[in-house]
Amino acid sequence: MANIFPHKHLLSASQLSKSDIHIITTRAQEFLNSGISTTPKYDFLRGKTVVSAFFEGSTRTKLSFELAARRIGADVLSFTASASSLSKGESLIDTLNTIDAMGVDMWVVRHSFSGAVDFMSGFSDCSFLNAGDGQHQHPTQGLLDILTMQQHFGDLTGKNICIVGDILHSRVARSTAILLKTLGANVGLLAPGTLFPHDVSNWKVSQFRKIDDAVEWADALNILRIQRERMASGLLPSLEEFSNFFGVKMKHLLRKPDLLIMHPGPVNYGVEIDHDVARAVQSVIQKQVTNGVAVRMAVMALLAENIERI
Fold this sequence. Notes:
CATH architecture of the largest domain: 3-Layer(aba) Sandwich
Distance between the termini: 19 Å
Shape: globular
Mean pLDDT: 92
CATH class of the largest domain: Alpha Beta
Strand order of the largest sheet: 7-6-5-8-9
Number of helices: 11
Number of strands: 9
CATH superfamily of the largest domain: Aspartate/ornithine carbamoyltransferase
């Protein structure tokens, strides 16, 4: 099997084969083994400029991508939509063309509209990485989740991974579920009926309506934030009711001590997960953050190798 990453962009988890995922996570683990918390010692993007364009607020993903780009030698141009000419009425494509004309090589984009990153990639010769678009995809979050689970379980074939919480609004759920199924894992979803996507029957996953059933079935819980900023009225009676019926609590860990606990952050403590669960020894939430830097280093390094080839 050729160890070649055959993509110019990373826009969706669905574009990745099992081999692609293996190449990315292997490279990420190599970075982790060599150390990612040092001054830049890699030159995959030496002489290249990465645009960090976040049209939505972000802490983990934005900082992780920018740190990862610098770790592999890139110059980073950080773009903030609210402080740009977009606020004066400039179009997205005019903004893209203006920045491209400055001589950049790669875009990392988060946008509130599904499909926006794919759309932008059609108007530029640069490589594009989707850092989250609307309710569509967040492929590097899915990949860092995969790496974290592989570190714990090894081969994910046959493992039962349940995604818990606000599935409806979650691009993380979509990306992670796709990658897990590509690797042969069994995927479950736990949510109130109002927070299942309308097309969930097409996902071909197990569906749970009770937290106890999900805990009994799962080897790992990937717990999602309730996205109150996207929540239409009437989807949940109250956050307290959600916590009572779907929140992950210490009693669940006491019942199943080997249950792996994950969360992409930021966390609503006392809603989808209790504080003591997030800090328990079974929790790998902080490891996910570390792995995010390594995965993004890996993806950008692999795309950099393709800038001249593709």
